[in-house]
Amino acid sequence: MARNNRLDTPREAGRTLRPNFDPEAFGRLSERFARFLGTAGFLVYMTVFVLSWVLWNAFAPVDLRFDDFPFIFLTLILSLQASYAAPLILLAQNRQADRDRIQVSEDRARNERSIADTEYLTRELASLRNALGEVATRDFLRNELGDMLEEVLKELRGNTQPDTEK
């Protein structure tokens, strides 16, 4: 056998020219970057960077300047930054939308379970009320026993009076 074609041994992994990257790690990185772009710190850093660039290229000695007045190189850098920032922000928004969709689904399921539990408890409470309606209460038993005691005493009094007259 020229190549290892046996079924009891695994094949060697094929090599590819495509870069191998973890989409989850890339997504986390894009979220961190997008989160940073939305901060005041980023605006301060960009303002300092642009002002430094403009001031250096406007007031530095001519032989030390690297981007003359129309600041075309600065425009190129800012355009490049914007062209990368926009897709990263969209990726971060898509990931957040996916997380929100999952959270809404979990909340809906939790609410459905809560409603089912509440309905079950309501039915159980109603059945207990019905069962209690059929059970004699303590007050009812006391009243009945009191009435029976009075009847027994009346009867005893009625039987004892003729004995005393003799």
TrEMBL record:
The keyword Transmembrane helix applies. The chain crosses the membrane at residues 36-59, 71-92. It comes from the Bacteria. It holds the Pfam family DUF1003. Keywords: Membrane, Transmembrane, Transmembrane helix. The keyword Membrane applies. This is DUF1003 domain-containing protein. It comes from Candidatus Planktophila limnetica.
